[in-house]
Amino acid sequence: MMNVFGASIPQLPLANWVDSLVNWLTQFTGFFNVIINFVSGINGAFQWVFDLLPQWLFIVLVMAWTWFLSRKAPRYWLLVLELVGLALIWNLDYWQDMTRTLSLVLTSSVIALVIGIPLGILMAKSNVAQTIIQPILDFMQTMPAFVYLIPAVAFFGIGTVPGVISSLIFAMPPVVRMTNLGIRQVPSDLIEAADSYGSTSWQKLVKVQLPLARKTIMSGVNQTLMLALSMVVTASMIGAMGLGTDVYFAVGRNEAGSGFTAGLAVVIIAIILDRITQLVNKPEH
């Protein structure tokens, strides 16, 4: 490799280093088996609940939850969308694939929130932690999603678990960033008032900072859900079953109709999840 001055510059074998690192990590099968069992357990619990509920009862529960969140100013258009949209998914025989997609999205989102919110709190409390974590989040959010599939398959094989892990990595940065932002935006005079009353750091966090940062944090939760859902088609390439599989197969077979209907089901689920999380963020009761 030559630079502008004609001198020879040795090329770094970065790809070989990454391959060596991945190969070295694959020997820790026990550790990865623990993660596989943990993720499979959460995903299986969600799927068990969805399989237990009849389709009509699932639709009624979603509409009832929406009504409860907006009962002071009912969103009738959203209730109609939920009824018509979910009934359409049922009619098109995508119900099982829809519940599998929801299980994958909820599993990756729950794990992302459990990890991401404490990381955001740590970043808000420590400038050193923010300096270290910020570039990692930039890397996670800007790296093409397809790249995550390679180590995910190497570590976890084919199936739902690598799909959850890749979705988790891709979807976690927003909730970390928004938690950090929300806590840092809490007015300093309120923090000083809490200190003057002798509040501990934990009391300030739970009773002052987190409640005041709730709307910002919920915006991060909303973005995390949407990003996790956007990964369903990509995750289908490594064996994660769901609506993404239907879209992926339709593309491979050049079946525009099947691809459109499966994609429409994804859109319906995305709109419902987005609007419900917005209602949780802005309660009207």
Automatic annotation (TrEMBL):
One Gene Ontology CC term in the entry: ATP-binding cassette (ABC) transporter complex
GO molecular function per UniProt: amine transmembrane transporter activity; carnitine transmembrane transporter activity
Regions crossing the membrane: 20-40, 52-70, 76-92, 104-125, 145-171, 224-244, 256-273
Membrane-related topology note: Multi-pass membrane protein
Compartment(s) where it occurs, according to its Swiss-Prot or TrEMBL record: Cell membrane; Membrane
Pfam family, one: BPD_transp_1
GO BP, sorted A to Z: choline transport; glycine betaine transport
Residue stretches making up the ABC transmembrane type-1 domain: 98-277
Major location (coarse): membrane
Keyword Nucleus attached: no
Keyword terms of this UniProt record: Cell membrane, Membrane, Transmembrane, Transmembrane helix, Transport
Cited PANTHER family: GLYCINE BETAINE/PROLINE BETAINE TRANSPORT SYSTEM PERMEASE PROTEIN PROW, GLYCINE BETAINE_PROLINE BETAINE TRANSPORT SYSTEM PERMEASE PROTEIN PROW
Family designation: Belongs to the binding-protein-dependent transport system permease family.
Name of the protein: ABC transporter
